[in-house]
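Lecture 7 notes: from sequence to structure.
We start with the chain below.
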Amino acid sequence: MTRSDDPTRQVACSAGQAADDAAEMGVDGQRPSRLDEAILGGPPQRVGRFEYHYDTDTWTWSDTVARMHGYEPG
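Predicted structure tokens for the same chain:
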């Protein structure tokens, strides 16, 4: 059996590749395009969060997202 046929090595490589792939994914779960990386200087960064509440028809924004839209946090 050669090193490339070793199932233990293949699992380790697969797990390592999965970790590398996850680190390269953008916030939407997709790899950033080359254009995105060129314009933004790197992969997209997660800067805040928001939630929509259907039952009350309201939004909840993190402080960062509020500031991005010109609102004071809180």
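Points to note: The radius of gyration is 20 Å. The first helix runs from residue 7 to 24.
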